[in-house]
Amino acid sequence: MTLRSDTAELLAGAGILDVDVDDAVADEHVRSSAYQRVVSVTAASQSRDRDRAIVATILRDPIEIVSKTAVVDLVDRIAMKATGPVEFQQWSAGLLPETDRLEAEGNRAFIRRRIHDWLFYLSVKDGHVPTSAELAKATDWMQRVLAEESTSPAVLDLLGESARTKKTRNIAKTRAGSRRHRM
Questions:
Q1: With left for phi above 0 and alpha for psi between -120 and 50, is residue 15 left, alpha or beta?
Q2: How far apart are CA 136 and CA 183, in angstroms?
Q3: CB 110: neighbour CB atoms within 10 A?
Q4: Which has the closest alpha carbon to 31: 51, 52, 54, 6?
Q5: pLDDT tens digit string along 26-65?
């Protein structure tokens, strides 16, 4: 496979006809934008059957930051649609072997951390109240997402006490306090 044939295949598979393949091959910014559109179409699909093949194709891009960014966007979009941690775990398990295509360990680790964060988020959303040790394994980003979105008083209290950053602790404390006043 070549970058040109991969790009053409991704665009055609997503039904995106207004991107010039040669422009996308020549310019990583055009290609990155095209990948974002492919990811958007892919995530909106009801079927998850083609996701692994799409990720494998994107990860063949010679510029790792371009491919990593697109894959992380897909992970985020699918996680937000997942009905729970089990569904997302099964989906992400199929993708993880594809991330071995990335040469930089930092890029592979980033995707693995993002998947871990979403599994953590989905388990909390499903009613799990994490321990301080479990919370410590979540990234600062995910701790902030939980502080901003969780409706669980126990989770907000834990974040208010144990989140790594002062900003996240303050968000959680403020939200926990405002929830108590409404009850």
A1: left
A2: 29
A3: 18
A4: 6
A5: 999 999 999 999 999 999 999 999 999 999 999 999 999 9
Please state, as a whole number, how many other Cβ atoms lie within 10 Å of the Cβ of residue 165: 13
At 176, the amino acid letter reads: A
pLDDT of residue 181: 53
Contacts of 75 (CB under 8 A, 6+ apart): 92, 95, 111, 114, 115, 118
DSSP the chain: --HHHHHHHHHHHHT--SS-HHHHHH-HHHHHHHHHHHHHHHHHSS--TTHHHHHHHHTT-SSHHHHHHHHHHHHHHHHHH-SSHHHHHHHHHHHGGGGGG-S-HHHHHHHHHHHHHHHHHHHHHTT----HHHHHTS-HHHHHHHHHH---HHHHHHHHHH-SSHHHHHHHHHHHHHHHHH-
Find out whether 157 and 131 touch, Cβ atoms under 8 Å. no
| Number of residues assigned to the chain | 183
d(CA 128, CA 14): 36
* Tokens describing residue 29: 């910014």
- Residue with tokens 């179409």, as numbered in its chain: 41
For residue 177, the model assigns a pLDDT of 85
